[in-house]
């Protein structure tokens, strides 16, 4: 993680974040999904401006370039972008609900350099500070190994066909260790 810096995303970052997401979906899913499933992924994944507005979305940079982005949410939506059907903006109860890790993307030029682990640590620390004791996320097949290495365990496997071709995903959870 040497050389990586992090900050909260702002409205001026949105075009650059969308470009990182497009590159990550298009390139990092290869080998895990068919071309049709990658195209379908663009319907069920992407930018969620609510995370930026809630100040729970991080940008990770390396030498001034955006290496990745991701965040967490105190809202019920588990995954998906602004355009994804079925969103739920209801606030979660930290005493009973799991905070959501959301919209994690690494630019392909920075894959496997600690970007994802840094974002997960930032999300975990921020959710802990707001009283959450658990995290949940929806993992892509390419992201699942990272989440498992960080301590997430599978809860359920699903196929999301809202984008046309069914995309395999795994809902995962993790207890936030007390400090």
Number of domains: 1
The beta-strand count equals 7
Strand content bin: 25-35%
Q: What top-tier CATH class fits best?
A: Alpha Beta
Order of helices and strands: EHHHEEEHEHEE
CATH architecture: 3-Layer(aba) Sandwich
As residue ranges, the low-confidence spans are: none
* Biggest pleated-sheet summary: 7 strands, mixed
The mean pLDDT is 96
Structural classification: alpha+beta
Helix content: 25-40%
Provide the gyration radius in Å.
Answer: 15 Å
SSE blueprint:
Blueprint: E1 4-8, H1 14-28, H2 35-44, H3 49-53, E2 57-62, E3 65-73, E4 99-106, H4 115-129, E5 134-139, H5 144-149, E6 153-160, E7 167-175
Parallel strand pairs: 4-5
Antiparallel strand pairs: 1-2, 2-3, 3-4, 5-7, 6-7
Characterization of this structure:
With 179 residues, the chain is an alpha+beta fold. The protein has one domain (4-175): Aminopeptidase, CATH 3.40.630.30. 28% of the residues lie in helices and 28% in strands. It has five helices and seven strands, in the order E-H-H-H-E-E-E-H-E-H-E-E. Strands 1-2-3-4-5-7-6 form a seven-stranded mixed beta sheet. Helix 4 (115-129) links the parallel strand 4 (99-106) and strand 5. The mean pLDDT is 96.
In short, what is this structure?
The chain has 179 residues and is an alpha+beta fold.
Based on the model shown, name its key terms.
single chain, 179 residues, Aminopeptidase, seven-stranded mixed beta sheet, 28% strand
């Amino acid at each position: 993680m040497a050389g990586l810096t992090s900050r909260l995303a702002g409205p001026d970052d949105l075009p650059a974040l969308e470009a990182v997401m497009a590159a990550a979906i298009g390139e990092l899913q290869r080998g895990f999904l068919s071309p049709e499933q990658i195209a379908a992924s663009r319907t069920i994944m992407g930018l969620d401006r609510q995370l930026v507005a809630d100040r729970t979305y991080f940008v990770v940079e390396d030498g001034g370039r955006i290496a990745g982005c991701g965040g967490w949410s105190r809202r019920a939506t588990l995954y998906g972008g602004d355009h994804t059907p079925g969103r739920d903006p209801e606030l979660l109860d930290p005493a009973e609900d799991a905070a959501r890790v959301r919209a994690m993307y690494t630019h392909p030029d920075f894959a496997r350099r600690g970007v994802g682990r840094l974002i997960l640590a930032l999300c975990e620390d921020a959710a802990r500070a707001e009283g959450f004791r658990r995290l949940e996320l929806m993992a892509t097949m390419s992201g699942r190994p990272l989440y498992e290495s960080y301590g997430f365990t599978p809860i359920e496997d699903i196929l999301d066909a809202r984008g046309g071709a069914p995309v395999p995903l795994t809902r995962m959870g993790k207890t936030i260790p007390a400090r």
